[in-house]
Amino acid sequence: MDVTGLRVALFSGNYNYVRDGANQALNRFVGYLLSQGAAVRVYSPTIATPAFEPTGDLVSAPSFAVPGRREYRVPYRMSGAVRRDLKRFRPNLVHVSSPDPLGHRAVSWARSGGLPAVASVHTRFETYPRYYGLAFLEPVIESLLRRFYRRCDAIVAPSESMAQLLREQRMSYDVGIWTRGIDRRIFNPGQRDLAWRRSLGIEDDEAVIGFIGRLVMEKGLDVFSDTIDQLALRHVRHKVMIVGEGPAREWFQNRLPNAIFTGFQKGADLGRAVASMDMLFNPSITETFGNVTLEAMACALPTVAARATGSESLVTEGVTGRLIRPGAIGAFADALAAYCTNPHARADAGAAARAEAERYGWDQVNQALVDTYIRVIRQRSQGALLRSSPVP
């Protein structure tokens, strides 16, 4: 079998209604599959005004808004319409990208029909409770995730550090890598724009500390803010640029009144914003890869990041940036201060980061997931059985 024989049913909790790194990677992957001659059908919640147009055919799944975070939706069941569409489509593989109720039903549907199921891991859901005072729930969520992923034939992680964590958590016997690529036409040092920086009140010789992503507490906004306070107390000259939108924007702006908030950026505008920074500060521990880190590296920026899954696979300590113990405010401040005050150190780390980013091309990384698809289909056709939980 080759890629033209694939008929993939992809289930997503958020395919295009809110823009994030995970669903942009999924849309790009669907585009790659279609360009190679595969057939794809996507099942996900939909809204009247999504963040962007979906790639491929999208079938709406029943969903409800998350209480307190109404921008997100939970697909809670596999409706009769979805089941009828699946029957007409006749997939030979099911891909689930979120461990939500629809994802569970999709895996059960695949197993009842003898089809292989592959799951992609995009975020560390088990870490989310700690940002809302519910850290005691982490072991429970990890157990639920283990039950979900063990029912799949294989799972794929976006970085080797995340894959190793999944192995240590005993999530699956078959853990592969589906990393992320970079569009070097958008993200490169040539997009740096000093005139644009000046229009934001940034002097040419001021070091800009950047944050890129959705403005939600689980991105480590509290650690980011506390670290910036430390730099101010030390009288380290710098500017802070925040690129992104989200429900915590008002909190973040109140916390960092002197920061520059550019709002949501995309395409060439995002490339300009990233390249016009001088370093990226990413204190989050929830990412499984860190798309923004790779984008910053391609723009020749050093990264100061939490020593966590994702970042550990991208940032080489002391070479392309710094890896700091999560939550270590003083150490984060030390690393940022060193880059703010030493432009030569910034340039050296940035050059090394750009060289490392050259290894990540979208076609190569997407083909790796295609290869996983074909392998698990072949294993099923040869009678290989899941080594996880009993068939329900």
Automatic annotation (TrEMBL):
Gene3D superfamilies the UniProt entry points to: Glycogen Phosphorylase B (3.40.50.2000)
Catalytic EC class: transferase
Keyword Glycosyltransferase: yes
InterPro entries tied to this protein: Glyco_trans_4-like_N, Glycosyltransferase_grp1
UniProt entry tagged with the keyword Zinc-finger: no
Keywords: Glycosyltransferase, Transferase
EC number(s) on file: 2.4.-.-
Protein name: Glycosyltransferase family 4 protein
Lineage: Bacteria, Pseudomonadati, Pseudomonadota, Alphaproteobacteria, Sphingomonadales
